Amino acid sequence: MFRNIKSTAVAALLCAVAAPVLAACDEAAESSEAPASTAAGQEPISGTAKITVDGRSVNVSCSGTEMEDRPVVVLLAGLGDGLDKLAAFQQTLSTKGRVCSYDRLGEGASDQPAGPQTFDSAGRILTGVLDRVAGDQPVVLAGHSLGGLIAARYAPAHRDRVAGLVLMDATPSTIIGDTTAAIPESATGPAAELRAQSLAVYGGENPEMLAMQDGEVGYAGDIPVEVIRHGQPYLAAVPEYGAALEQAWAAGQDKWLKLSSDSNPVTAANSGHYIYVDQPDVAVQAIERVAADA
Questions:
Q1: 27 secondary structure, DSSP code
Q2: Cα separations (Å) of 6 from 20, 145, 188, 241?
Q3: Distance CA 223, CA 20 (A)
Q4: Distance separating alpha carbons of residues 121 and 102, to the nearest angstrom
Q5: Domain segments of the chain: what residues?
Q6: How far is it, in rounded angstroms, from Cα 7 to Cα 262?
Q7: Which is deepest, 6, 23, 166, 184, by most CB within 10 Å?
């Protein structure tokens, strides 16, 4: 598939929302087994565990110990990645406090979705996860790629519990329109195939059965937000349309700054799409800043 397009560029575009379409996303490390947070009246989750949300089994992982006046950090992986992909990153973060992650329905060790999903249904699963791993405690959501898009769509309607956001090369809020504008319907050859595959994934042909919709960036108040973008222009390798794809992605990162009156842009100069793998120090520092200010 896509043999005629430089593999790194194709993997970058599709891993941004559709990693399972290609076998180009890395294997993950093992998950942590340290103590973790819990909702009041329930036993603490240590390492990985299954919880039930809306009648579905959801795989979660928590590590680190509770720190006074510090929110729980909850990590959201990109499409096609399970929480095990985040394990090494989570272990690093957990030296400073409580950190949890989870597999969305259709990913990792969680159940398959019962049917097509929307951002609202994905948000309900996230709420159930937060209820269990954080209880009444505030949270900082740190999402990569599609996980960042879900976190950014969730935060404005949940200001009572989301105290901060870190977006790591988050999928833009207008990814469908961006893609169709950058690669027109008149495109031929590998670019046309890339366009068709991307739109199919956005429409729900993905492990989460998530049908994405473009939307305006919501407002989450004055919570601290850091928007990290890649510094290595991997999308530029797509023949003919790469420059337009890069420009659209960069514009999408700028739009995320509208989430808060306390938003800050960060560039991971030596990173491709997987910022927490390529330059984990940049992502860790951003999360630490947001957690401290939340």
A1: P
A2: 18, 21, 16, 13
A3: 33
A4: 15
A5: 7-293
A6: 37
A7: 166
Query: What three-state secondary structure class fits 201?
Result: helix
Among 126, 60, 125, which Cα is nearest to 98's? Answer: 60
For residue 214, what are the contacts with CB-CB under 8 A and spacing of at least 6? 173, 174, 175, 176, 177
In tens, the pLDDT along 182-215 reads 999 999 998 999 999 999 999 999 999 999 999 9
> What does the pLDDT look like over 253-282, one tens digit per residue?
999 999 999 999 999 999 999 999 999 999
Note whether 19 and 81 are within 8 A (CB).
yes
Predicted pLDDT at 6: 42
Please tell me whether residue 224 adopts helix, strand or coil conformation: strand
Q: What is the CATH number of domain 7-293?
A: 3.40.50.1820
pTM for the full predicted model: 0.89
Give tens-digit pLDDT for 208-240: 999 999 999 999 999 999 999 999 999 998 889
